[in-house]
Each structure stands twice: as C-alpha cells, then as structure tokens.
Design a protein that fits this description.
The chain is about 60% helix and about 0% strand. The protein is an all-alpha fold.
C-alpha cells in the first residue's frame, strides 16, 4: 500500500506535462487512485451508513490529508485542459454523494475551491460549468429522469389568441430541440396534420420534450457562456441552501476571497451573500474582505464587493455602529505628513488608488488624504526621465507603459490583453495598456491619446501616465516643429488634470503641475494656466482663511490678464474673469465697476457663439452678478433702485444673448420688485423689464407672469396694451385658482352633502333643486382641475344626471329619492373607512 501511494504521488506531477499523452496517462492514474480512495463500494452499506451532512470526500479535503489532497490537487490543476475535461467530469462524478446538498458541497470543493487554491491555477472559466455537469450527472443517470417529459399531453393548437410565445424568439438556435417538425412526437405530428385550425405562420412549442433534453441544453449553453454557468450556480445554491452544510461552503468561499482576485471572485461574492450568516462567523473574513475591497477599488467589481463588506459589517456590528461616537476609524485624523519631500517614482506608484472616487469620500476622509504624506505627483521632464531609467519593472499597467517606453526586448501583447480582460476589470488600466501597445506597434505616432479623467479615476495614476506619455512624445520628435507640437499636446492633457484636481481642491498638487509647465508657455496658453494657478491659490487661501494668499491671487490675475487677453481662447477669458470676481467677493471688495469691467471684457473678446465649451463658468458669472445686485437692492441705504434693476436686466439680456438658461435670474429679478420702495419704475427700466420678459414669454411658467402682474402698478399704464400677455384673459388665473380651491375637501364627503341637501330641501322646489344640482356639477363632476379622487366619483355621474330635470310628479319624487338613497348608501361605508 505504501509503494502504491508513493507511485501515485510521483505520478501526480505529470498531470501538467507538456506532452498530451503523458498528461492523459497521468490523469488516468489519478482518477483510478481517486476511485480507489473514495469509491462508495468501499464504504458502509447504505442501510448502515449514518445520516450526516458531510462525506468522506469533504472530510478528506477539510482535514488536508496529504495523500488525498495530492490526488485531488493534481486533478484540479488539469481542469482547464480540454483534452481530459470529459475524463475528469465522468471520473470525479462517479464517487459523489447522492444527496444533492452534500453533492453540491463536494462539487464546489472539487471544481472551484481546489483549482482556486492551486499555486498555478488552471483556466478557471470552465470550472463552474464542470461543477454544474458533475452536480446533475447523478440525476441524469436515472432512467426515470430520462423518460419524464415537460408535459405528457400536447397543448391544444391555437387554444389562445395571445400570439406566439416569447420563448420562440429566444430559442432560435435550438429549434431542433424545442419546436419544428424535426423532433415532434408521433401524437403531436398527428394533431398538427389533422387540425383544420392550423395557421402556417404561427409556430408551436413541443411541450412533450424530455426534461433531460432541456437540462442538456442548459448545461451546453452554460459551458459556452461563463456568465450563464455562474447564474445557474447561484440559483442552485439558493435552492439547495437548506440542505447544504453552510459552514463548509462559507469557510471555503472565505479562503478563496482571502487570495488575490480571479475570474471567479464575482461568483464567490454572490455565493457569500447566499450563505451570509455562515460567512459572518468565519474567522478572518473581515480582514479578507477588506483586502478584497482595496484590490477591487476603481474596478467593475468595486460595488458588489463593497456591498458584501457592508452586509457583513451590518450583521456583525449591529445597530450600535450607527450611534455617533461608537466607531472611531479615523484615530489618526490629526496626522500631518511631511509636506517638503522630493519626488520619487516608487513612492508615487505606492500612492496609486488613494486619490480615486473623490466624490464618494466623506469630508473626514478627504482631510485625512490632504494631511497625509502623499508623495508629489509631478516633477520636471528631465527628472522624470532619470527616474524612468532607474525604475524596476514589476506588474501593473505602469510597468507595461515603462516597458513600452524603453522599446527594449519583446512584448507579449496577447498576454497583456488577456490579463487586462480578467476580472476585476479596470477601464483606466485597460486604456493605459492599450496605449502602451499602440506605442510599441507604432500607431502612437498619430498623437491621439485620451485624457478623459473620470470622477472615479485616481489623479496620482493619471499624473504618472501623463508624465510618461510626455516622455514618449519627446522621444518621437525628429525636428523642432514636431517637438513643439508634442509639447503643446502634453501640456493640454496636463491642463485637463489641473482642472480635475482644482475641482477636488488638491491645490498643492496643482501648483506643482503649473510649475512644471509654465516656463515655456506660448501666449495663447498662458491665460489657461494662469486660471488654474489662481484657482489653486484661491482654494488654499479659502481653506486656511489667509487673506494674503487671496490678495496675491487677485493681484496676479488682474496684472497678467490684460497682457494676454487678445490672444487667449474665449473659455480662458471667461474662466479668469470668474476667478477675479470670486476673489473680490471673498475679500468683500466686489463692486459694480468690477462686474461691468468683467462683463465688458467677456463681451469684447469672447463672442457668445464661441463660448460653448465654458457655459458653466459664464452662468456662474451671471448668477454672481445678479445676487450681488440683489443684495444692493434690499439695502435700505440705496437711494436709486432703478439703476440697480437696470444693471440686473443688462445681466439678464447677456444671459439670453448667450443662450444660457436663466430661470433663476428671472426669479431673483421678479422677487426684487417686492423690495422696490418707489411708486413706479422709471420708464426706461420698466420698458427694459418688459422687453426682456417678452423675449422669453413662451418659456416662462404661469407663476412668473402672475408675479409680474402682481406688480403691474409699478409699470406704465400704456405698456399694458403693448404686451398682450400682460392683459387680463377671459379665463383669468384668479378664476382658475378659485376652481382649484373648490377641490380642497374630501370628494366623497362633499358629494354626500350635496345628496343630503337635495333629498332634504329641494325635493319639491324646482328652482332650488336646479341651483344645488348645478353647484354639484360644476364643483365635482365638471371641474377641469379635478384629480383622481374626483374622477372615481364618475361612477355615480350617470345615475345622478338621470334626475337632473326636475318634474313635479310623484313618480319623479320616488325615483329621485331612490337614486339619492342608493348613492348615499354606497358612500357611507367608504366615508367610515376613511
């Protein structure tokens, strides 16, 4: 026996041999050893076997029996080999338990757990489909299961007029299995041939198909489509969860999740949700999930892993974690790193990921990052190239870009692409590796590279990518003109980085990027970079409440803007003027002269049709100006409010000329009329107001028009006829609001009161009867503004309208009393329920 075990152990190493015949022979030996070890015939007879939730196979894997694990691991390492796929499926299935709960656990351990735990895992994409085939192999071997059909009797032909089933459109590639004349039963063919109701264009489903055929189709589809096999595995886990040993599955899932992410991590996260109670009791699960969260950050798997982490936290910590002060995860919040540190490429790569998902971070998390010792992300081009020469290539997207930059050795581009496509995929890493491949293939000479920085991207990673891209573009320059063009291209990409960093208030990093690019700027670039510098200085001054920094930023902007405004693009003119006005506001020095100067500069040098790229900044300037004038308008010390309103209307006119939405500006101006202290507006101001409203009257809502009509006494009387929308209409809104206010009551109670009034007072008075009935019609049944509660009362409308015409007869009296009594009887229970 010892000799046999030694021979088997020695053969195990040949399951991964490069020669196919050797691999197949070694797998034959391993399967024979597996049968010898776990064959059910060597165990107790079924009648004497005690009922347990485990099996000998499970116990051997969990106990880590050296001999058994040697056999199983050698077979697991060969599961990605198509040559022995069928042999492994049939050989491993022969020794599995018949209980579906135990069998599911065994299949998972054999085809998922052991391959994932191998030092060199096989192709894991086929493991789940192999698991599903092994799980159902015992069921499919039963004769009864092979003969049982989906339905013993055929469906009646054309028994419904609903139309063809959606299944017919979804099973086009399986027509030979599900429909058509190729696989119909004899009875079905006779029914089709003998029916006179048959329509040639309405295919029918053969429901007498064996369940075995349907299951075989599902398993074949799952083998070809990994996503389908994962879904089938999750559904089976849900169905078999009560019969499975959750502790075993939870421990194995937690062990795999503690390792680096692979192709099956997404499936394992979903399985962890299925067995969440058992997973929470596994030792070390929170540490493993925390590592997984960090490794999947900024990838397609981030959300599902974070959801699992939060679920475990909720079940483990309880509600106490929501009590303020109970949790203190940020003990080192007061830590201040060394701000004066030299650039290091190795330090920069360790910071990858720390500046990602900025919008999702709390204020406390952002402060921690800002105060921590993050390495400088920028340096000069010469220093960066020196660091590239000494950089040690490892793994990851940056190392691949360094390899492509050096243009040394051969690149396994196919291997790079395969690694990029594995779960969890990162869009940023995929684009960076694709760019590196384009460099090596020569397509990078086209000088088209993406610089679309997403809110979830890490700015440290983008800084490294843009610097190595700049170094690559410098290496392509055979002449001076091309060199200048490439430098400008690099600066344009880094300018986008500065904008994103300023939006996140990472001002110190922006200043480093500006310092890197400002020495050799062209005149048409200067104002763009000046805007980013002033923006960063303002962020620093506001954060530290340092007036000196704010004054310095304002002086810099006002000094250099006139020097370069003639040769700068429109968006830079708008942006720098926005910074100037905001700095004046921060320093409490904003005046009407400053606003007019900025607006005039924008009008002179930035035409409305050329400012499409920076409409947000332009809208911010208009809103800032309107709010400034509004504050002046509310000040009682202001003597001439007409001039202020005129300035506000000038801003509104510029906004309309620029095709910028101005609902908020209209609201502020119209509300400002409430603060007007005079009897009437100056004639030129009134006409300017009416002209601006008339330009956009078709886009204004009724409330804005009514608000202006409420101050009609401030407008010249002769202007009423000039603007038709200012005159009172037949269906004036006052009448509309009156009709709406009539509906502010309980609909059923109101109808009940009208019925009682008709029955009590108007049964013999024709005039009073008509008056009450007309009020009821107008307020309940014929009110155009009635809502859903009133629409439900339409069920009584026809019955009540039958007694609308009053007749002084005994027959009409009896009929009307019966109708009113029936309506009240139906309304009373509903009113009691309310």
């Amino acid at each position: 026996n010892d000799v046999k075990r030694r021979l088997v152990s020695q053969t195990a190493g040949y399951c991964g041999h490069s020669v196919a015949k050797v691999r197949r022979a070694a797998c034959d030996v391993m399967i024979a050893a597996y049968h010898d070890l776990f064959n059910p015939s060597t165990e107790c007879p079924p009648a004497k076997k005690p009922k347990t939730s485990t099996s000998r196979l499970i116990d051997s894997i969990l106990s880590k029996d050296i001999y058994a694990c040697t056999i199983l691991r050698s077979l697991a390492s060969a599961m990605g080999d198509e040559l022995v796929y069928g042999m492994l499926r049939d050989g491993l299935s022969a020794c599995l338990d018949n209980d579906m709960g135990i069998r599911f656990t065994e299949c998972f351990l054999l085809s998922v757990y052991l391959p994932c735990m191998c030092s060199e895992p096989p192709d894991l994409s086929v493991c789940v489909s192999l698991m599903m085939e092994m799980l159902f192999s015992g069921l499919r071997s039963h004769e009864r299961f092979r003969t049982i059909k989906l339905r013993e009797e055929p469906l009646e032909i054309n028994q419904t007029n609903v139309g063809p089933s959606k299944l017919l459109t979804m099973s086009g590639s399986y027509q030979g299995t599900f429909r058509g004349n190729f696989n119909l039963t004899k009875r079905r063919k006779q029914a089709k041939q003998g029916s006179n109701l048959k329509k040639p264009d309405s295919p029918d489903i053969d429901v007498e198909i064996p369940i075995e055929n349907i299951l075989a189709t599902f398993l074949k589809f799952a083998k070809d489509t990994p996503e389908a096999s994962h879904t089938l595995c999750i559904e089976c886990a849900h169905a078999l969860r009560p019969a499975c040993d959750g502790s075993v599955l939870a421990a194995s899932v937690a062990a795999i999740l503690g390792r680096p992410a692979n192709q099956l991590t997404a499936l394992l996260v979903q399985l962890a949700h299925v067995f969440i109670d058992d997973v929470c009791r596994v030792d070390g699960i929170r540490t493993a999930i925390k590592k997984l969260v960090n490794s999947t950050r900024n990838t397609v798997g981030e959300l599902i892993v974070t959801a699992l982490s939060e679920e475990i936290s909720l079940r483990s910590d309880g509600r106490e974690q929501f009590v303020l002060g109970v949790r203190n995860d940020d003990d080192d919040d007061d830590f201040m790193g060394d701000a004066e540190c030299n650039f290091s490429l190795d330090d920069l790569t360790t910071a990858f990921g720390q500046l990602a998902n900025w919008d999702r971070l709390t204020l406390k998390q952002r402060r921690r990052i800002e105060k921590s010792a993050l390495p400088p992300p920028w340096t000069s081009r010469e220093v960066f190239k020196e660091h590239l020469e000494n950089y040690t290539v490892s793994t990851g997207w940056f190392s691949k870009m360094v390899t492509a930059y050096h243009q040394e050795g051969s690149l396994d581009e196919l291997k790079w692409l395969r690694a990029m496509d594995r779960w969890p995929r990162r869009h940023f890493a995929a684009s960076a590796i694709t760019e590196a491949i384009e460099w090596r293939s020569g397509r990078g000479e086209q000088n088209y590279f993406a610089s679309d920085i997403q809110p979830s991207d890490c700015l440290a990673e983008w800084a490294a990518r843009l610097m190595i891209r700049s170094a690559y573009l410098d290496s392509l320059t055979p002449d001076t003109e091309s060199a200048q063009a490439n430098v400008m291209l690099s600066r344009s990409h880094e300018l986008v980085w500065c904008k994103r960093a300023n939006e996140r208030a990472l001002s110190s990093f922006v200043m480093e990027c500006v310092k890197r690019n400002t020495p050799d700027l062209y005149e048409n670039e200067t104002l763009l970079w000046l805007q980013q510098k002033v923006w960063a200085m303002r962020n620093l001054g506001v954060a530290s409440t340092d007036l000196d920094i704010l004054k310095k930023a304002l002086n810099t902007a006002e000094t250099f803007t006139p020097l370069f405004v003639n040769k700068s693009p429109p968006e830079s003119i708008v942006g720098i003027n926005k910074m100037i006005l905001m700095l004046h506001k921060d320093l409490n020095t904003l005046s009407t002269e400053h606003l007019k100067n900025s607006l005039q500069m924008i009008e002179d040098f930035a035409k409305p049709d050329s400012m499409a790229s920076d409409r947000t900044s332009l809208k911010s300037i208009f809103e800032l100006a309107i709010s400034f004038y509004d504050d002046l308008l509310e000040n009682d010390q202001v003597s001439d409010q007409n001039d202020i309103l005129s300035n506000m209307l000038d801003v509104l006119s510029r906004s309309l000329d620029s095709n910028i939405a101005c609902e908020g500006l209209n609201a502020i101006i119209l509300n400002g009329l409430d603060s007007f202290n005079g009897d009437t507006l100056r004639e030129d101001v009134a006409l300017k107001l009416l002209n601006q409203i008339d330009r956009q009257v078709n886009n204004l809502d009724d409330f804005a028009i009514e608000q202006l009509k409420a101050h009609i006494n401030l407008l010249p009387s002769r202007s009423h006829a000039q603007y038709p929308w200012l005159r009172e209409q037949d269906g004036d809104s006052v009448v509309k609001y009156k009709r709406c206010l009539e509906l502010v009551c309980d609909a059923e109670h109101s109808l009940m009161m009208y019925c009682e009034e008709l029955a009590a007072h108007a049964i013999s008075d024709a005039k009073q009867w008509k008056q009450i009935f007309d009020r009821m019609k107008q307020k309940i049944f014929e009110n155009p503004y009635a809502g859903s509660e009133y629409q439900l009362l339409s069920r009584y409308k026809n019955k009540l309208y039958e007694i609308y015409d009053f007749e002084p007869t005994q027959c009409f009296k009896e009929k009307s009393e019966k109708v009113l009594r029936d309506v009240r009887r139906q309304l009373q229970p509903r009113i009691r329920e309310v």
